[in-house]
Every structure is written in C-alpha cells, then in structure tokens.
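Dear colleagues,

As part of the handover before I leave the project, I'm documenting each prediction I ran so the next person doesn't have to rerun anything. This entry is a single chain, and its sequence is reproduced below.
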Amino acid sequence: MLNKRTNKFAEQVDNNQSVPQKPKQPDKPQTYEVSDNKSKGKTIAKWIVAIVIIGLLIWMFYYSCSPKSTKITVKEATPTANSLTLKTNGGTEVNIKIASDDGKLANAGWSEYYLNLGNSTVYTMYASSDNYGTVSFRVEEWTAIDSSDQLVTWICIGSVDPVKLSTYTASFQTWLTDALTNHASVASNNNTWSYILINLLPTIILVALMVWMYNRMAKLQGGAMGGEDSIFGMGKSQAKIAQSNVKFSDVAGIEEEKAELIEIVDYLKNPEKYAAMGARTPRGVILYGPPGTGKTLLAKAVAGEAKVPFFQVSGSAFEDMLVGVGAKRVRDLFAKAKKAAPAIIFIDELDSVASKRGKYDVSGSSGLADQTINQLLAEMDGFSTRTGIVVMAATNRLDVIDDAILRPGRFDRHIQVNLPDIKEREAILKIHARNKNLSSKVNLEDIARRTPGFSGAQLENVLNEATLLAVRFNKSSVGMDEIDEAIDRVIAGPAKKTRVITEEEKKQIAYHEAGHALVGLHTPGGDVVEKITIIPRGRAAGYTLSTPEKQEIQIQKKSDLLAIITTTLGGRAAEEVIYGNDAISTGASNDLYKVTNIVRSMVTQLGMTEIGMTQFIPSEGVINPNQIKLYSDETANKIDAQIEKIIQDQYTAAKKLISSNKKELDLIVESLLVLETIVKSQIDYIHKNLKLPEEVVSKKQEIETAKKDKVAEQPEEITSDKPTKSSSSSSKSPKKDN
C-alpha cells in the first residue's frame, strides 16, 4: 500500500535578540560593472608567453632578412670597358662593375683593376640584380715560389685552377671572361620576400605548435593557468553571475515566502526608503524545507528580479583535495561581491559546507574540515564589517547547520518552504499548465485534491508526463486519462502490464489491496480511498491510493496515527483471514516498514504511550556517533515491548474489521479481478450498496460472451474424434469376458 500523507508538526525557533542600536545611515550603494577578469598570475603568465613569442618572431625576421649566400652558375660572360655582363643558366643577366672599397662605382677599367690586385685590392667587383640582389665572386691571390725558384703571384676565381698573375697582364679581361664562363659560380645575396617567407615558415609552424601545446596543457589542467580547476587557480571561487528569466510571477503556492524575498529585492532597488526609517536589510536569508518545494526556484526569481549582481555557487564547490582551498575560495567569493556591491550571494545546499563543527574530531577541537565554515562565519559577520552584500542559502537539512551561522547577524531570516496545501497545489498546477493544451474536462482542483503531499516539482512532472503520454497516443489535448496515468507514474513508476503472473497470485494481491481499502473505509478518521489497482508498477505488485479525509491538517492526533497504522496493516490482515497464517506473502514488507517507523516515533519521540513523555531519540539536530547511549538497556526493552504491543493491537483490530465485512471484501476483490483498477466512485458504490457496480457487471458479461463465442467457433471434427465413455466401455467388454 502506498499512502501519501504529510506529517506536519509546529516548529518553533528561538532567536536571540540583539541589543538595539542607533540606526546608522547606510552608505549610498554604488553599482560596479562586474567583469570576468583573469587572475593576476594568469595575466602575468600570458604576458610572458606573448613577449617570448614576439621576440622569437622579431629575431627570425631579422635573421631571414639578413644576406644569405647562394650559388648561381655562369653560362656566358660578355666583357665591356669597365663592366662584365654575366648570364646564368636561368637566363638572368648580372652586370658586374668595378667599385672602390667604400662601395661606390669607379671609372677604372679592367687594366687598372688588374694592376691593383697585388696592391691589397684597391678596387672590388660590384654587381646587383633584381633576382639575386647583391652578387659577388671571390678572386683570390697569393704569392708563392714556382718551379724555377721565382716569386710569382697567383690568382684564382671561383673554382678555376690558379694561374700566374703575370700571364694575363695584357689580357686579364679575356681570362676573367673565360674563367667565369662554364667554370665558376657566383655568390648571390638572396633576400627576396619569397625567400624570407620560406625561411619564416618553420618558425611559424614552431610557434603555432607551442601555442597549441600551451592550450592543450591548460585544458588538461581544467582551464588556463589560473583557471578555476587548474592547479594554479585552485583557490579561486567558482561562483558565477547568474542570469535568470524567472520572475516572481512565475512562482506560485508559496506567497508568504515570496513576499519576504520581494522585500529584500525592493530594498536593494530603493535603499533610501528603508534608510529613512532607520532599517537595514537582513544580512542573510536561509530557505529550508523538503526537496522540490521551490527553494532554488525562489533564488532564480530573485536573480531575475534583482538589478544587482547575483553570485550563485554550490556548497560542494568550496571543498577540494588540498587543505585550505575552501577557506581561500570563500575569501575570493566575498572579495568579488564587495567589488560589485550591492550584490547577492546564493549558496545552494549549504549543509554540505556549513554543517556542525567538530563532528569529525573525537577530541572535540575544530579540525581541518572546519576551516571553510570558520572563514564563512568571519566573512558574514566578523571583525571587518561588510556592507551591501546579502547572502541567500538553501538547504534540506536545517538541523545539521552549525548554530553559529544561523544566528541573527549572519542569517537574520529563516524561511521555511513547506509542501503546498490543496489551494497552493492548484495555483502551482495553473502555472505549469499555461503552456499545456489541456482538455476542457480537466479539473485542476480535482487533481490538487488527489495529490496530497506532492511537491511543486512532482506536480510539474505530473503535467509533463501527461503531455508526453498524450503525444505518444497522438491526441490533440491532454485529458484526465493521461493525468491519472501520470499520477500513478510519479507515485510508483510505469505500469508493467506484460509481467507474467498466475491467477492465484493475482487473486492474493487483490485481497491484499482490498484489505487496505476495506479497513480504511471502516476506520473512523481513516483516509479516503481514491484508487485501487492490481497492475504492477515498479517494485509494487499493486497499490492503494488514499487521501486524508480532512485536507492539509497541520497536526495529527494519536487517533489519526492509530488509524493510519490499522489501515496499513489491513493488507496483511486480509491475507491471513482468507489464506491462513501459513500463506501470508511478502507483499506487506513496505507496510511493516512504515508502521514500525510511525509506532517508534510515537514511543520514543512523541510521548504517546504509557512509557512516558521522555524523548529518547531527539527529533531535532544530529546525534553524535561518539555520544554515550541515549537510554538504558531496561528502557530499550520497554520501548521494544511497547512498539510490538501497539502493532499487535492494531493488527487484531484490522482482522476483526475484515472478518466482519467479508462480503464487501469479496465484492472489491471481484471488481479488481475484472477491471484491474477501480476508482473512488466504484469503491463508494460497493461500500454503500454491497453489490457490484454497473461497470463490473457489464465487463463480466462481455467476458462471458467472448468465452462462449470462442467455444462456438471451435471445429466440430475435433470434438468428434474423441471417444465417448460408452464406446470405450464397449471396447473393453470383450476383454472382461475373456
């Protein structure tokens, strides 16, 4: 049995009153433009890399532009009076002239050039070409003794064999021409742009490879140097400036909680109005409550409405593998917020970073794990007063949060976001139904009544699942059939209609679920049975959906809890009454789990038994595992005995109700076996009239008619082949006579 019900108890929180002080005129808020600046170390590292790359480029460009020697082969040489025209193999002409040592052209002829070769080369050869730039060739001279023991000057040009200088006194120009043609190569200083680019290409490839490797290493470290996840930026806060399109008009069902946050947003927009009355904004607001009730949605609405920077971070984002990283990230977060003040900081899942201190330290002293919360305490309300920063937080476990962080001055407002009541559920359904094509027969109030204990997230999921089912079945609108199926899916999962199950097992499941419904119908203060099904869903072979008779009660009486226990035990009681104690099944496993927890709370926490009103297990806070036992062994035996006594008493009452109303139980079971699912109207009809509903009767007639038609359609020859009793006996009679 699955019984959705909300147990709500009044909760009172005593807050210490701070000493009244003279209202201080707050500083006029200034809005700063927040940019995602790089960290200082990251910027310096990038500048160093950029300077190195630029330096390499300048050096390589200078190196490429400096003269480079290359060899060109001379094909033909044509001498003139004071010049020499060379033709290379490529057909390019190079005009060589005589120049002085300072590089200026001279009018001297070849004879004068020849005469000065032995005088330390007064003149040199000079040539220039658009294709090869400055062209030069080497003329070597030296003095040596020849075979006749005479001191002779030798000359050599290019690769030509050396000859005596005196041999070409008159015909040096002719010798030079002959020496250059087909024998010598000329050195060319090539510095054209194509040559420069060719030389720069390896450097460009090398620089590109260095940049790629740098970026690759940065990504492997979780970001560039100084990034959030890299080793250089491990202490950097991971808070992001949230951008949200959610407005307060998109939030329904939590009007009082929404009003508290609207006031804070209004203060940030109009601080002068509050300053005139001497009021200050709450420094911190914490939202707590069950999962799915809209705490994060409220934070998104604040981010969408506030015109100030909204820093969003998860509580688990503070901690890392190194000690002290959490505290460093807290300091970095508040430093960013101070620069952008006025600003809002939202910490989701605060319990993961601000749980009670000392829980991991047996000695009781604050360990290394508490450094983060200590820094958070100092930043929120420490020696240095912060201004213009509002801290919002959300948690599902307020009881595990450290008391020091919950006090006024840090979190001034504690806003509990509870599960919505029937009116709030209807308002939430209207919000989520705005973009859904619902049928005109869909009644949102009826859906809200049938979903007690559902959170806002579950209600949104119901409508979304119903819409998906409508699309699956090619419907133009979402009807109640799809919504009913969606509610069942959210509660117990999709239906397992193809699961193989025997008729006997199916019948026992029907008696189990019918027992829940029957006991609930006959128990004063019991829940209203909305639906019974024996179609398997998830881990459940069937379930009964019940809703409270009085919607949204805030407190539950002892009689209400006993009624819940009796109804929950009705399934096991029906199995024992019908099949006996030896044939009870494992279907009551979840029922016994819930019953035991309820009774244990009654005995140890709620003081509803004869043991007394002592709370043996605290209903608030966290139990320290190193603490001594909360109660003695003798008290533990009394608690166990009392729990068993209450369960047995209610189980006996459930069996009596089932035994005295067995006819009604059989009618419910028969209806379940025919329809597999019956709803409130059919259950109420059986309860009032003690007969089957019209839907069940008509369905049974259809089944019987289908069986008769199937028998009539069978071939007659199949039945004729079977021998009759008379024929078989007559065939055996001769044997008896023998």
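The mean pLDDT is 75. The first strand starts at residue 2 and ends at 3.

All the best with the project,
I.
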